[in-house]
Amino acid sequence: MERREQVILTNMCMLRKGTQVLVEEKVGPYAGGITFPGGHVEEHEPIVDSVIREMKEETGLTIEAPKLCGIKEWINEDGSRYLVFLFTADRFSGELISSEEGRVFWMEQDEILKSNWIWHMDDLLKVMADGEFAELFLDSADDWKPVLK
After folding, report:
1. DSSP H or E stretch at residue 70
2. What are the DSSP calls for 4-21, one per residue?
3. Does this model's pTM top 0.90?
4. Residue 41 DSSP label
5. I want to staple 11 with a disulfide (CB 3.0 to 4.6 A). Which of 22, 51, 57, 98 is the partner?
6. What is the C-alpha to C-alpha distance for residues 128 and 124, in angstroms, rounded to an integer?
7. Partners of 99 in the beta sheet?
C-alpha cells in the first residue's frame, strides 16, 4: 500500500508585540481580508527557515525563535493535501515594510475579529492565539466546515 500523497507545504506566523499582532491585507489572488503573513515552503527548505524567510520577504522583519503552535489543512479537489504550519513569535528586528503581497500593519489582537478578516480566521485564532486546539481541518466533503482538534 502506497503511503505517499501530494502535499503543498506553506506557513503562517502570528507575530506579537505586546497586545498587538502583525496582520497583512493580501492583494491579488489571495485577497479577501486580514490574515497573518506567510507563504510557501521551497523545495528542500527546512520549515522553520521557510517562515523566517517569508516573514522577511513580506514584512521586512527578521523573526527569531518562531514557535510551531499548530497546523491548518484541507484536501484540494485534485486530492492533494494543503498544509499550513502555524507559528507564533515575539522576537524580531528590522523595519516594518509592506511587500507586493499586501499591506502589513500592527493591530490589537482583540480587534481582529471586528475587522474584515479571512475565511475561518475565528477558528485559526483558537489554534494560534488561544492554544485551545492544535489543528484546523477544513472539510471539503462537508461544505468546507471547520473541524478543530
Report:
1. strand 67-75
2. ---EEEEEEEEEEETTEE
3. yes
4. P
5. 51
6. 6
7. 102
Query: On the CB side of 125, how many CA atoms lie within 13 Å of its CA?
Result: 16
Looking at residue 31, what is its pLDDT? 73
What sections of the chain are H helices per DSSP?
A: 47-59, 121-128
- 103: amino acid identity, one letter: R
Q: Which residue has the cell 462537508?
A: 142
Domains and CATH numbers, the chain: 7-148 (3.90.79.10)
Of 9, 16, 22, 80, the C-alpha closest to 51 is: 9
CA distance 22 to 39: 15
Which residue type occupies 63? I
Block mean pLDDT (10 aa), the chain, length 149: 91 98 88 91 98 98 98 94 97 96 95 89 94 92 86
- The greatest distance separating any two alpha carbons of the chain, rounded to the nearest whole angstrom, comes to 50
Instruction: Indicate the helix (H) or strand (E) that contains 78.
Output: none
53/65 Cα distance (integer angstroms): 13
